[in-house]
Amino acid sequence: MNILDKNYDSTIWVRAREIPEFKGALEALEKNYEQYCVDDILPSKFSHFRLFQDVGDRNTYQKDFFRRQHRLFTCAVYSLIYPENEKAFELLQDTIFEICDMFAWALPAHMGPLDTINQFELDLDACTIGMALALIKRLLGDRLHPLIIKRIDDEIDRRIVSPFLSQRWHWEFRENNWTTVCTGSVGCALMLNRPDVFELVKDRINHDMQTYVDAYGDDGVCTEGAGYWGYGFGYYIAYADMLRSYSNGKDDLLAGEKIKSIATFYQKMILDENVVVTFGDCGLGGRMTQSAGLAYKLKSIFGDVYEFPPKDTLTYDVHYFPFFLDTFICYNEANKDSKLSRNCEYFMANQGWYVKRTPNYSFACRGGTNGESHNHNDVGSFIFASGDKQVLCDIGGRPYTRQYFENEYRYTYLETSSRGHNVPIINGQYQGNVRETRSYTSFENGVVSIDFKELYDIAELKRLVRRFKASDRCVEIVDEFDIEDSDASFVERLISYIEPKISEGVVEIDGIMVKFDPNVASASYTIEQRALELNEDGSIKVGSDVYCINLDVKMPCNSFAFTIEVK
What we know:
The protein has 16 helices and 21 strands. By secondary structure, it is α+β, with helices and mostly antiparallel strands. 47% of the residues are buried. The model has no long low-confidence stretch (mean pLDDT 94).
């Protein structure tokens, strides 16, 4: 359901105060109000704006930029649920006025060199701000001052409509979250605010949305990771749902088995409560939650096909404004007692991903390629989760800077290099960023096999096949390899946030044991630091210890086996 749906009931906002299940959402709203809506709005500074081009720092400018967005979204929802609060409403109008005065709605990181900068660049934030203002006007238009309404109309025309009509944008041809976030936001803004223009570009927008869907295989895997699935597919759903209402059901982009498969991707990525598979630029330590509003919307659209996430995995993040609105619009009390199924197994054949949940542990591994959006060099890697944590982990992404997305630097970092993943180090070399080369992954008789020799780009390596067999209490892993080098070396690399205890043939980590033949390999570990966030000056803040465990295979040898089991 959406605000164009004939069943939309505008009284839901005030009634939300009386529904116990909205307690978490209302507490999040209050927290945001206290955090973002008390102090004065800070003006944009050119000295901050230019930092990305000067030194690669995104954070200094974006901190105040996103604070302004949070204030806009928070005050809008606050004014819907607490219409008697005139202070919040006036602050909303002040914030709209300020946003309409901004030099640009796009981020410096997406606008090119300062000497050729496009003030009306359409990026993720420019497009979503346009959609948000159109939503706010539709929801609160009878209360907004006529000048505020005029400013919204003028700036949507100037910053969204005219730029979109002037050219085809790079993100219309991309096969990642940009396509749906940007195109979907533009489409929703036009349906809400300029339906005359929407009719002119509807086919173009629908074609862009299909480009996004075509990037998926039938298995529904989002290779960008679980977080980017929620972002990209969330805006696909927002647009498709609104389009279906706008067209009275004539245009339905929600039909088909492939869309259902994409919609159920996240439920396959949950390992244990809010611990998820974190391949790619994903959450720290496996911690990630799903937007409650998106979950309610997906459940309302796909019914029993969609497994509603456990309550503890849901979050209320006002920054994802359309999804936060859907928390109230699409709520259904029938979903409040959902529980995570503990016995399940998924093999996603197109991308070669595998996930298994048991009552004792959860496990995930991946094949695929190193040529993905938000790629890490991690083909053949795996995650072993026990309780509420990844024990053998994928450490996820790194704070975004200019350098993080430049090929010269990207794979020098622990987070993106194979040295920071659970994959072998062969002849002292890590996996290469061999973008056009795929692994070959199969699943037969309970065994996942990944042939990923080509990902190492080592001439002497003639064979490399990794096999996983997961049972109720353990996972058996066997690597088979052939290295034509008298000085060959083969080291199993395992990654954990938790300090291991090493004894003969056993590495114990927080209640799980990695067992191997001590006559074939010896164990040791080193410590590295991962980056967690940026300091105020834009430099990287050193974060938590990462334990890099090495099982050094005694050569010559052509196979190595180890098991991971719950103690």
